[in-house]
Amino acid sequence: MTHNIDTIFGNDWPEVRSIYAARLSTGLTAFASTPPTQSEWNASHLFVGRLVARVDGTVRGLAVLTPAADT
Asked: Is the pTM of this model over 0.70?
């Protein structure tokens, strides 16, 4: 079994969306109830710090950064 941390690529979107949707379904991680489109997701997350965990080439987890207000 091979484990890698890698940058998110455009072709990872179906797996990223699936993981994001699973988190939303818990009701514990966000106010949204359905996952955004890829363009909406891209607009709300920074382009740096987008990582996926791959196990044998399949995306199994992700970590992304979102902008925060400077208060």
From this structure: yes
Residue 48 CA to residue 27 CA, distance in Å, equals 26
Strand order across the 51-55 sheet: 3-7, 51-55, 58-63
d(CA 45, CA 49): 9
Cβ within 8 Å of residue 1, ≥6 positions away: 55, 56
3-state secondary structure of 27: coil
Write out pLDDT tens, residues 31-67: 777 888 999 999 989 999 899 999 999 999 999 998 8
Residues 53 and 59: beta-carbon distance below 8 Å = yes
Cα 7 to Cα 12, 48, 54, 69: the distances in Å are 10, 9, 10, 25
